[in-house]
Amino acid sequence: MSLIAQLLNEKALPEIVPSQSSRLVNELVDIAQIYEDELNFVAWERTLEPSLINAVETLVSILSERPKLLSHSETVSVENVETTLQRVFPECEGRDLIIEDIRLLLEAFCCLFELEQVGLRISLVKRAMCPRFHVDQVPCRLITTYCGPATQWLENSDISRAKLGRGNGGLPDEHSGLVSKDATVFQLKAGDVGLLKGEKWYENEGRGIVHRSPEVQANEARLILTFDFA
């Protein structure tokens, strides 16, 4: 059985620790654990190959010289994503490695949720896109940061959801009462792949994963990929 085919057949799941709503896994097939009701965030911890890291650095260097930063959204399929990205990315050494990695993640996402098409977004940013903690109005989103600081999130037990959005009263998240005093702000690293349940996941209203974009320092850039249900 191929790696992708295992996604919907994975049976051996570790015991859930009470009060934990997120889980880190070591294999791509284990992201299928997102189907567990208690979880609203599953992340595949991975280390990018040096060749892929070099390719990303080359691509980011070229994109950073453009007058307008890359921000591209398009509905794609496994069959056409390679052609799409060849059009979006400039020719550079290692470009095919990046495209193949994205294609692999797309294949996994489509297989996991039985999708024919997916909303792809690829962006190069030099500031926090969503600096405040929030939830997404989607069923489930895949996100990975190829370079730069990556997504931050909170456990369900560490937040007061009434303080999200307008409930913050105009106060920063750190002072609004949203985050409990002893809360830990967790953060992915570059290369990790996160699946984030949103408010539109079946029977998940009021339980979407609370997350935010990290601060981006001067001279830093983030290359971010997301997949959404089309």
Briefly characterize the structure.
This protein is of the alpha+beta class and 230 residues long. The chain has four helices and ten strands.
| CATH class category | Mainly Beta
The number of domains:
1
Which superfamily, in CATH terms, is the homologous superfamily? Answer: q2cbj1_9rhob like domain
Output the CATH topology.
Jelly Rolls
Tally of strands: 10
Strand content: 15-25%
Taking pLDDT < 50 over at least 5 consecutive residues as the criterion, the unreliable ranges are 10-19
End-to-end distance: 28 Å
Structural class: alpha+beta
Shape: globular
Report the helical percentage: 10-25%
| Total helical elements | 4
Order of helices and strands: EEHEHHEEEHEEEE
The order of strands across the largest sheet is: 1-2-8-5-10-4-3
Largest sheet: 7 strands, mixed
Rg from alpha-carbon coordinates: 18 Å
Mean pLDDT reading: 89
Q: What is the CATH-assigned architecture? A: Sandwich
InterPro entries: DUF1826 (IPR014955)
Protein name: Succinylglutamate desuccinylase
Organism: Marinomonas mediterranea (strain ATCC 700492 / JCM 21426 / NBRC 103028 / MMB-1)
Description of the molecule:
The protein has one domain: Jelly Rolls (Sandwich), CATH 2.60.120.620. Mean pLDDT is 89; it is low at 10-19. It has 4 helices and 10 strands; from the N terminus they run E-E-H-E-H-H-E-E-E-H-E-E-E-E. It has helices at 50-64, 81-88, 95-113, 173-176; strands at residues 22-25, 41-44, 71-76, 118-125, 140-147, 152-154, 186-187, 193-197, 210-212, 222-229. Helix 2 packs across helix 3. A 7-stranded mixed sheet has the order 1-2-8-5-10-4-3, covered by helices on one side. A 3-stranded antiparallel sheet has the order 7-6-9, with no helix packed on it. Helix content is 20%, strand content 22%. The chain is globular and about 50 Å long. It has 230 residues and is of the alpha+beta class.
